[in-house]
Amino acid sequence: MPKVWIEKLTEDMELYLIRVDDDQIKYFEAAWDIPEGITYNSYLLKLNDAVVLFDTVKKDYEDLFMDALKKLVDPKEITHIIVHHTEPDHSGALPRVLEENEYKAMVIGTQFARNLLEGFYGKKVVENFKVIKDGEEMKIGGKTFRFITVPWLHWPDTMITYLVEDKIIFSCDAGGGYSIPETIDDSSEEVVEKYLPYVTKYIVTVIGHYHKYIVENIRKLKELGIVKDVKMILPGHGLIWRRDPIRIFRHYEEVGAGRAEKGKVLVVYDSMYGFVEKRMDIVIDELKKHGMKPVIYKYTDKVAPAVSDILGEVPSAEAIVIGVSTYEADIHPRIRYLLYEIIDKANYEKPVLIVGAFGWGGGAGKKIESMITRSKFDHVMTVESKGAPSAEDEEKIRDAVRELIQRSLPTGNT
Ligand code: FEO
């Protein structure tokens, strides 16, 4: 049974977090393995003459959510519901809230949000919908709510709310991450350190296709002057940020820009019968000789790592090595799917080396090369040969690794 948190967030305001910890989910968006789970964060702000609800939770948990909400307020008293993003992990319980609210509340969001809600839940939920424009302000309960659109983070409907007097950003997906942190906020460095890799994994899998918009939209918020003094960032998933709120946006910017960790090389390969693995042992040995730090994921007849975990490693890698078997004159199916997702979700200007093995006829390496050269990645070399690697193959692989290292270092020095 998922845990539900109800936490008051400030001394001077009746601002509450309602967090549902989804420990039942296995595949976010039916695609991404998340054994670590996820939280859905909704917020409630009770003001003198207004009660504002910020987003809801996934429909699976609407009963739990309604029980928690009713501990804070009679749903009929909710005057405004702000919809930052309509993906059903946040909007799933909205029809139920509105039903129990007797459709009294004004629902606030972008034009896209209105259209999507109508498509998902029918006309009734948008009968009292207020479409906002980028930068529009509304006075609600004596406070100023500024709505700022951040399109493609990660849907076209997405916006954030800035509570002007209190310098609080309600950011929904932006600033979110996977996993179920043991605290609600960033007060413990230990919790934050454990959480941030799940943020990276979340960014790449959920927002990665649009990652250039992360940098653009955070720049937009900075230019509006609302980032430097922000007191709290309240996302729709994971930790809330109030000890060092800017840190989460900084992390998003770094992932969006693909900022690399010095020396990190992502090594991914399949090996059906050990021939690719022999080559990858050479690759790894050569990388280590030059002080590089390989991070290794392999597909064999015993292990199959989650694509979502591998995607989460790409932004911080300086370079990538792909080891591949030719399979039915094509790329091994595991690597084929992985590559498709890497190029779609984590397409960065990073050098890539391809190392392949085949039985009677190659071709996987060339097919990968053609995918890589059409992406933002920088194709360094393809080294593909038959069966077990010969001494000559080994020399070629070591040369190729040295070339990869040269290409991954801005100074060109090892
Ligand atoms: Fe957390 Fe895009 O929904």
TrEMBL record:
<dbReference type="GO" id="GO:0046872">
    <property type="term" value="F:metal ion binding"/>
</dbReference>
<dbReference type="InterPro" id="IPR029039">
    <property type="entry name" value="Flavoprotein-like_sf"/>
</dbReference>
<dbReference type="InterPro" id="IPR045761">
    <property type="entry name" value="ODP_dom"/>
</dbReference>
<dbReference type="Pfam" id="PF19583">
    <property type="entry name" value="ODP"/>
</dbReference>
<dbReference type="GO" id="GO:0009055">
    <property type="term" value="F:electron transfer activity"/>
</dbReference>
<dbReference type="InterPro" id="IPR001279">
    <property type="entry name" value="Metallo-B-lactamas"/>
</dbReference>
<dbReference type="GO" id="GO:0010181">
    <property type="term" value="F:FMN binding"/>
</dbReference>
<dbReference type="Pfam" id="PF00258">
    <property type="entry name" value="Flavodoxin_1"/>
</dbReference>
<protein>
    <submittedName>
        <fullName>Flavoprotein</fullName>
    </submittedName>
</protein>
<dbReference type="InterPro" id="IPR036866">
    <property type="entry name" value="RibonucZ/Hydroxyglut_hydro"/>
</dbReference>
<dbReference type="InterPro" id="IPR016440">
    <property type="entry name" value="Rubredoxin-O_OxRdtase"/>
</dbReference>
<dbReference type="InterPro" id="IPR008254">
    <property type="entry name" value="Flavodoxin/NO_synth"/>
</dbReference>
<dbReference type="GO" id="GO:0016491">
    <property type="term" value="F:oxidoreductase activity"/>
</dbReference>
<feature type="domain" description="Flavodoxin-like">
    <location>
        <begin position="265"/>
        <end position="405"/>
    </location>
</feature>
